[in-house]
C-alpha cells in the first residue's frame, strides 16, 4: 500500500500576503541602490548576472498579477506540496522569460520603473483577489493562496542569491523565511516519507521523514538540525550536504541522518 499523502500545512493568509509584499519591498529598495557595475556582477546561478537576477524578481512576483488577469483555469488543481518537485522542468522557459525582461530593462531608469510598476500592480491584485481564486502557474492551476506561499520561496531564495553576489545585506522578512522553510521541509517529508529521521530547523519547522523505525518518545535516534538559511541553501542546491557538515552549519546524528541523497529538493 502506498504511503498516506501528507496533509498540507495551513498558512495564515494575511501573514503570507504581507510577507510577499514586504520581501519584494526589501528587494526593491536594494535594486534602487545598484550601480551598472553591480548589475554586471556574476551570480551563483550559472551565467546570470545581477541584472538577470533583478529581472527574475520582477518576473516571479509579476506572475501573480499576470495569472489573475487571465481567465480562471478549468483544469485540475495542483497542490502546494506538488509544486517543489515540478519546478525543475520549467527552468528553460523561466530562463528565457527572465532574459527577455532583463533585455527590456537595460538602463537603471527602466529597471526602477519596472519594480515600481510591479509593486503597485501586486498590491492592487492582492487587495482585490481571494485566496481561493484558481490561477495558472507554470506547474498548473493553483489556488492563489498556495501560489503566494511559493512566491515566498522565490523571494527568499533569490534574496540570498542577491546578497551572495553583491554583499548588500538585503534583509529577510521573518514570515517570508518561515513560510519558505516550512514548505521546503514539508517537501522533504513528501519526497522521503517515514518517521525514522527528525529534521529540525528552529524556530520554524520540525518534520519527520525517511522510512524506518518510527520514533515515538524521548530523543529520536536520527536527528538533523540546522539554521533556516542553511536549510534553504541545502534544499535548493546552493550548499552541498558535505560542505555544510564540514562547516558545522548542520548537525546530523544517527545512522539514517544523511540527507545527501535527498537534496536538493528544487532544481
* Inertia-based shape: globular
User: In what order do the strands lie side by side in the largest sheet?
Assistant: 4-3-5-6
Distance between the termini: 29 Å
The helix fraction, in percent, is 40-55%
Fill in the CATH topology of the largest domain.
Answer: Four Helix Bundle (Hemerythrin (Met), subunit A)
Can you tell me the CATH class of the largest domain?
Answer: Mainly Alpha
Structural class, from helix and strand content? alpha+beta
Order of helices and strands: HHHHHEEHHEEEHHE
Uncertain regions spanning at least 5 consecutive residues = 1-5
| Total number of domains | 2
Overall radius of gyration: 19 Å
Strand residue content: 5-15%
The CATH architecture term of the largest domain is Up-down Bundle
Number of helices: 9
Q: Please give the largest β-sheet.
A: 4 strands, mixed
Please count the beta strands (DSSP E, at least 2 residues each). Answer: 6
- The average pLDDT is 93
Q: Oligomeric status of the shown chains?
A: single chain
CATH homologous superfamily of the largest domain? dinb family like domain
Topology:
Blueprint (H helix, E strand, L loop, with lengths): L12 H20 L3 H4 L10 H20 L21 H14 L3 H21 L5 E4 L2 E4 H23 L7 H18 L5 E5 L3 E5 L13 E4 L1 H8 L5 H6 L3 E4 L14
Parallel strand pairs: 3-5
Antiparallel strand pairs: 1-2, 3-4, 5-6
Helix pairs in contact: 1-5, 1-6, 1-7, 3-4, 3-5, 3-6, 6-7, 7-8
Amino acid at each position: 500500500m502506498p504511503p498516506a499523502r501528507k496533509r498540507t500545512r495551513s498558512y495564515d493568509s494575511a501573514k503570507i500576503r504581507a510577507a510577499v509584499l514586504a520581501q519584494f519591498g526589501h528587494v526593491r529598495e536594494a535594486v534602487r541602490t545598484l550601480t551598472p557595475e553591480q548589475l554586471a556582477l556574476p551570480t551563483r546561478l550559472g551565467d546570470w548576472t545581477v541584472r538577470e537576477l533583478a529581472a527574475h524578481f520582477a518576473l516571479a512576483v509579476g506572475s501573480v498579477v499576470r495569472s489573475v488577469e487571465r481567465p480562471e483555469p478549468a483544469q485540475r488543481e495542483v497542490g502546494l506540496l506538488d509544486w517543489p518537485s515540478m519546478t525543475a522542468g520549467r527552468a528553460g522557459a523561466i530562463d528565457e522569460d527572465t532574459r527577455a525582461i532583463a533585455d527590456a530593462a537595460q538602463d537603471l531608469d527602466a529597471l526602477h520603473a519596472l519594480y515600481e510598476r510591479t509593486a503597485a500592480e501586486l498590491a492592487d491584485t492582492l487587495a482585490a483577489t481571494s485566496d481561493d481564486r484558481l490561477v495558472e502557474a507554470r506547474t498548473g492551476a493553483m489556488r492563489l493562496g498556495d501560489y503566494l506561499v511559493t512566491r515566498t520561496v522565490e523571494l527568499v531564495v533569490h534574496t540570498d542569491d542577491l546578497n551572495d553576489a553583491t554583499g548588500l545585506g538585503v534583509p529577510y522578512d521573518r514570515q517570508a523565511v518561515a513560510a519558505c522553510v516550512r514548505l521546503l521541509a514539508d517537501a522533504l517529508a513528501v519526497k522521503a516519507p517515514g518517521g525514522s529521521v527528525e529534521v529540525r530547523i528552529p524556530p520554524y519547522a520540525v518534520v519527520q521523514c525517511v522510512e524506518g523505525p518510527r520514533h515515538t518518545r524521548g530523543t529520536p535516534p536520527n536527528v538533523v538540525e540546522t539554521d533556516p538559511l542553511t536549510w534553504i541553501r541545502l534544499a535548493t542546491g546552493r550548499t552541498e550536504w558535505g560542505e555544510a557538515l564540514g562547516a558545522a552549519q548542520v548537525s546530523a546524528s544517527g545512522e539514517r541522518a544523511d540527507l545527501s541523497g535527498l537534496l536538493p529538493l528544487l532544481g
